[in-house]
Amino acid sequence: MRETAFVIGGCNAFPMHDPESKRLALHLLTTGFTVDSVARRTGIPRSTLWRWKQNPERAAALVPRLCPRCHDRALDPTAYAYLLGLYLGDGSIANAPGNKGVFRLEIACDDGWPGLIDAAATTILAVMPGSKVGRRQCPGCTSVNCYSKHWPCLFPQHGPGMKHTRKIELVSWQQEIVDEFTKEFVRGLIHSDGCRGINKVRREVAGEDRWYEYPRYFFTNTSVDIRRLYTDALDRLGIEWKQANARNISVAKREAVARLDEFVGPKY
Ligand SMILES: [Zn+2]
Questions:
Q1: pTM over 0.85
Q2: Residue 5 Cα to ligand 1 middle (Å)
Q3: CATH no. for residue 36?
Q4: Most buried one in 49, 125, 129, 201, CB count within 10 A?
Q5: In this predicted model, what pLDDT tens digit does every residue of 249-265 receive, in sequence order?
Q6: Could you tell me if residue 70 is inside a domain?
Q7: Could you tell me if residue 234 is inside a domain?
Protein backbone atom coordinates (compact mmCIF):
# COMPACT_ATOMS: atom_id res chain seq x y z
CA MET A 1 0.00 0.00 0.00
CA ARG A 2 1.20 3.47 -0.74
CA GLU A 3 0.54 4.55 2.86
CA THR A 4 3.73 2.80 3.83
CA ALA A 5 5.60 5.59 2.02
CA PHE A 6 4.36 8.09 4.60
CA VAL A 7 6.58 7.01 7.43
CA ILE A 8 5.97 9.33 10.35
CA GLY A 9 9.51 9.07 11.66
CA GLY A 10 10.92 10.81 8.60
CA CYS A 11 8.92 13.99 9.13
CA ASN A 12 10.91 15.36 12.00
CA ALA A 13 13.95 15.42 9.75
CA PHE A 14 12.25 18.08 7.61
CA PRO A 15 11.39 21.67 8.32
CA MET A 16 7.72 22.56 8.49
CA HIS A 17 5.87 22.85 5.25
CA ASP A 18 8.30 20.83 3.25
CA PRO A 19 6.60 18.92 0.44
CA GLU A 20 6.66 15.58 2.25
CA SER A 21 5.10 16.99 5.41
CA LYS A 22 2.42 18.65 3.28
CA ARG A 23 1.75 15.40 1.50
CA LEU A 24 1.56 13.48 4.75
CA ALA A 25 -0.76 16.06 6.30
CA LEU A 26 -3.13 15.99 3.33
CA HIS A 27 -3.16 12.22 3.34
CA LEU A 28 -4.00 12.12 7.03
CA LEU A 29 -6.64 14.86 6.76
CA THR A 30 -8.43 13.08 3.94
CA THR A 31 -8.36 9.73 5.73
CA GLY A 32 -10.16 10.91 8.85
CA PHE A 33 -7.43 12.18 11.17
CA THR A 34 -8.30 15.27 13.19
CA VAL A 35 -6.63 18.61 12.58
CA ASP A 36 -5.14 18.49 16.08
CA SER A 37 -3.56 15.08 15.58
CA VAL A 38 -2.19 16.03 12.14
CA ALA A 39 -0.76 19.25 13.58
CA ARG A 40 1.01 17.24 16.25
CA ARG A 41 2.42 14.75 13.79
CA THR A 42 3.55 17.15 11.10
CA GLY A 43 4.23 20.40 12.94
CA ILE A 44 2.09 22.30 10.44
CA PRO A 45 -0.03 25.02 12.12
CA ARG A 46 -3.69 24.18 12.84
CA SER A 47 -4.92 27.27 10.94
CA THR A 48 -3.16 26.04 7.80
CA LEU A 49 -4.52 22.54 8.25
CA TRP A 50 -8.07 23.88 8.63
CA ARG A 51 -7.72 25.68 5.29
CA TRP A 52 -6.45 22.50 3.65
CA LYS A 53 -9.22 20.43 5.21
CA GLN A 54 -11.86 22.77 3.79
CA ASN A 55 -10.40 22.62 0.29
CA PRO A 56 -8.26 19.49 -0.06
CA GLU A 57 -8.21 19.58 -3.89
CA ARG A 58 -6.71 23.05 -3.94
CA ALA A 59 -4.27 22.12 -1.20
CA ALA A 60 -3.23 18.97 -3.08
CA ALA A 61 -2.47 21.06 -6.15
CA LEU A 62 0.07 23.02 -4.08
CA VAL A 63 2.02 19.94 -3.14
CA PRO A 64 4.68 18.96 -5.66
CA ARG A 65 4.53 15.32 -6.61
CA LEU A 66 7.98 14.26 -5.64
CA CYS A 67 8.84 10.75 -6.62
CA PRO A 68 7.81 8.90 -9.76
CA ARG A 69 8.16 5.61 -7.89
CA CYS A 70 6.37 6.46 -4.59
CA HIS A 71 3.95 9.20 -5.61
CA ASP A 72 2.81 8.28 -9.11
CA ARG A 73 4.43 11.37 -10.53
CA ALA A 74 5.11 11.07 -14.24
CA LEU A 75 8.78 10.58 -15.03
CA ASP A 76 10.37 12.44 -17.93
CA PRO A 77 11.91 9.41 -19.66
CA THR A 78 14.20 11.39 -21.96
CA ALA A 79 15.74 13.27 -19.05
CA TYR A 80 15.86 10.12 -16.94
CA ALA A 81 17.69 8.06 -19.59
CA TYR A 82 20.33 10.82 -19.90
CA LEU A 83 20.64 11.20 -16.12
CA LEU A 84 20.96 7.44 -15.69
CA GLY A 85 23.91 7.54 -18.11
CA LEU A 86 25.48 10.42 -16.14
CA TYR A 87 24.89 8.63 -12.83
CA LEU A 88 26.42 5.36 -13.99
CA GLY A 89 29.37 7.27 -15.37
CA ASP A 90 30.34 9.97 -12.89
CA GLY A 91 27.50 9.99 -10.39
CA SER A 92 27.14 8.91 -6.80
CA ILE A 93 24.44 8.76 -4.16
CA ALA A 94 25.30 9.17 -0.49
CA ASN A 95 23.52 9.77 2.80
CA ALA A 96 23.21 13.49 3.35
CA PRO A 97 25.22 14.50 6.41
CA GLY A 98 23.01 14.84 9.48
CA ASN A 99 19.83 14.32 7.54
CA LYS A 100 18.59 10.87 8.22
CA GLY A 101 16.72 9.39 5.30
CA VAL A 102 17.85 12.07 2.86
CA PHE A 103 20.26 11.29 0.05
CA ARG A 104 22.50 13.47 -2.04
CA LEU A 105 22.88 12.75 -5.72
CA GLU A 106 26.10 14.13 -7.11
CA ILE A 107 27.26 14.24 -10.70
CA ALA A 108 30.92 15.14 -11.05
CA CYS A 109 31.29 17.34 -14.15
CA ASP A 110 34.63 18.33 -15.68
CA ASP A 111 35.14 22.11 -15.54
CA GLY A 112 36.37 21.97 -19.13
CA TRP A 113 32.80 21.46 -20.34
CA PRO A 114 30.57 24.17 -18.85
CA GLY A 115 27.69 23.28 -21.18
CA LEU A 116 27.59 19.78 -19.72
CA ILE A 117 27.51 21.18 -16.18
CA ASP A 118 24.40 23.16 -17.11
CA ALA A 119 22.92 20.14 -18.89
CA ALA A 120 23.37 17.99 -15.78
CA ALA A 121 21.64 20.60 -13.60
CA THR A 122 18.74 21.02 -16.04
CA THR A 123 18.32 17.26 -16.33
CA ILE A 124 18.23 16.71 -12.58
CA LEU A 125 15.47 19.32 -12.34
CA ALA A 126 13.53 17.65 -15.13
CA VAL A 127 13.70 14.32 -13.28
CA MET A 128 12.99 15.77 -9.82
CA PRO A 129 10.98 18.98 -10.47
CA GLY A 130 10.76 21.48 -7.66
CA SER A 131 14.08 20.39 -6.14
CA LYS A 132 17.02 22.64 -5.48
CA VAL A 133 20.10 21.86 -7.53
CA GLY A 134 23.43 22.98 -6.11
CA ARG A 135 26.94 23.20 -7.49
CA ARG A 136 30.06 22.51 -5.47
CA GLN A 137 33.50 23.38 -6.76
CA CYS A 138 36.06 20.57 -6.48
CA PRO A 139 39.59 20.45 -7.93
CA GLY A 140 39.06 20.44 -11.69
CA CYS A 141 35.39 19.65 -11.56
CA THR A 142 32.03 20.91 -10.44
CA SER A 143 29.82 18.61 -8.47
CA VAL A 144 26.20 19.16 -9.45
CA ASN A 145 24.07 17.93 -6.57
CA CYS A 146 20.53 17.57 -5.37
CA TYR A 147 19.03 16.28 -2.11
CA SER A 148 16.03 13.97 -1.89
CA LYS A 149 14.75 11.01 0.04
CA HIS A 150 13.93 9.37 -3.26
CA TRP A 151 17.17 9.05 -5.19
CA PRO A 152 17.48 5.35 -4.30
CA CYS A 153 13.96 4.81 -5.71
CA LEU A 154 15.13 6.28 -9.01
CA PHE A 155 18.56 4.69 -8.95
CA PRO A 156 18.22 1.31 -7.25
CA GLN A 157 21.84 0.64 -8.23
CA HIS A 158 22.74 2.73 -5.18
CA GLY A 159 24.71 0.69 -2.69
CA PRO A 160 27.80 0.70 -0.51
CA GLY A 161 31.20 0.94 -2.15
CA MET A 162 32.37 1.92 -5.58
CA LYS A 163 30.20 0.97 -8.53
CA HIS A 164 32.86 -1.23 -10.08
CA THR A 165 33.06 -3.34 -6.90
CA ARG A 166 29.44 -4.44 -7.04
CA LYS A 167 26.94 -5.83 -9.49
CA ILE A 168 25.28 -3.13 -11.57
CA GLU A 169 22.17 -4.15 -13.45
CA LEU A 170 19.06 -2.30 -14.48
CA VAL A 171 15.66 -3.19 -13.05
CA SER A 172 12.86 -3.82 -15.52
CA TRP A 173 11.32 -0.32 -15.56
CA GLN A 174 14.77 1.19 -16.13
CA GLN A 175 15.49 -1.28 -18.90
CA GLU A 176 12.23 -0.33 -20.62
CA ILE A 177 13.24 3.34 -20.56
CA VAL A 178 16.75 2.55 -21.81
CA ASP A 179 15.33 0.38 -24.59
CA GLU A 180 13.12 3.21 -25.77
CA PHE A 181 15.44 6.15 -25.11
CA THR A 182 18.70 4.43 -25.94
CA LYS A 183 20.29 7.44 -27.59
CA GLU A 184 19.78 9.61 -24.50
CA PHE A 185 21.26 6.86 -22.32
CA VAL A 186 24.34 6.55 -24.54
CA ARG A 187 24.65 10.33 -24.62
CA GLY A 188 24.68 10.44 -20.82
CA LEU A 189 27.31 7.71 -20.59
CA ILE A 190 29.58 9.39 -23.13
CA HIS A 191 29.09 12.84 -21.58
CA SER A 192 30.31 11.45 -18.28
CA ASP A 193 32.83 8.73 -19.04
CA GLY A 194 33.41 9.13 -22.74
CA CYS A 195 35.02 11.47 -25.20
CA ARG A 196 35.25 12.14 -28.91
CA GLY A 197 38.85 12.49 -29.89
CA ILE A 198 41.07 12.41 -32.94
CA ASN A 199 43.08 9.28 -33.49
CA LYS A 200 46.32 9.53 -35.47
CA VAL A 201 47.43 6.50 -37.42
CA ARG A 202 50.67 6.03 -39.30
CA ARG A 203 50.59 4.10 -42.56
CA GLU A 204 53.32 3.36 -45.00
CA VAL A 205 52.38 4.33 -48.51
CA ALA A 206 54.87 3.78 -51.38
CA GLY A 207 57.73 3.49 -48.91
CA GLU A 208 56.82 6.70 -47.05
CA ASP A 209 55.16 7.24 -43.70
CA ARG A 210 51.84 8.98 -43.91
CA TRP A 211 49.73 10.10 -41.00
CA TYR A 212 45.98 9.85 -41.07
CA GLU A 213 43.59 11.37 -38.58
CA TYR A 214 40.10 10.19 -37.88
CA PRO A 215 37.58 10.84 -35.12
CA ARG A 216 36.86 8.17 -32.58
CA TYR A 217 34.67 7.81 -29.50
CA PHE A 218 36.15 6.34 -26.37
CA PHE A 219 34.23 5.16 -23.34
CA THR A 220 36.20 4.36 -20.20
CA ASN A 221 34.76 2.69 -17.14
CA THR A 222 36.19 0.28 -14.61
CA SER A 223 32.90 -1.57 -14.13
CA VAL A 224 32.44 -4.48 -16.49
CA ASP A 225 28.65 -4.22 -15.92
CA ILE A 226 28.53 -0.55 -16.91
CA ARG A 227 30.67 -1.22 -19.98
CA ARG A 228 28.24 -3.97 -20.90
CA LEU A 229 25.25 -1.64 -20.50
CA TYR A 230 27.02 0.75 -22.87
CA THR A 231 27.84 -1.89 -25.48
CA ASP A 232 24.34 -3.41 -25.20
CA ALA A 233 22.93 0.04 -25.97
CA LEU A 234 25.30 0.44 -28.93
CA ASP A 235 24.22 -2.99 -30.21
CA ARG A 236 20.61 -1.92 -29.90
CA LEU A 237 21.38 1.13 -32.05
CA GLY A 238 23.36 -0.97 -34.55
CA ILE A 239 26.58 0.92 -33.83
CA GLU A 240 29.76 -1.10 -34.21
CA TRP A 241 32.22 -1.02 -31.30
CA LYS A 242 35.45 -2.64 -30.22
CA GLN A 243 36.97 -3.45 -26.85
CA ALA A 244 40.10 -1.28 -27.12
CA ASN A 245 41.64 -2.54 -23.89
CA ALA A 246 40.57 -3.73 -20.45
CA ARG A 247 38.63 -0.57 -19.54
CA ASN A 248 37.97 1.13 -22.87
CA ILE A 249 35.36 0.70 -25.55
CA SER A 250 36.16 2.30 -28.88
CA VAL A 251 33.82 3.35 -31.68
CA ALA A 252 36.05 4.14 -34.64
CA LYS A 253 34.43 2.94 -37.88
CA ARG A 254 33.46 5.94 -39.99
CA GLU A 255 29.76 5.09 -40.20
CA ALA A 256 29.56 4.22 -36.49
CA VAL A 257 31.19 7.54 -35.53
CA ALA A 258 28.77 9.33 -37.86
CA ARG A 259 25.84 7.69 -36.06
CA LEU A 260 27.12 8.83 -32.65
CA ASP A 261 27.76 12.31 -34.06
CA GLU A 262 24.04 12.52 -34.87
CA PHE A 263 23.08 12.58 -31.19
CA VAL A 264 26.25 12.90 -29.08
CA GLY A 265 29.02 14.91 -30.78
CA PRO A 266 31.92 16.61 -29.03
CA LYS A 267 31.60 17.69 -25.42
CA TYR A 268 30.76 21.36 -24.92
ZN1 LIG B 1 10.40 7.36 -3.88
A1: no
A2: 8
A3: 1.10.10
A4: 49
A5: 999 999 999 999 999 98
A6: no
A7: yes
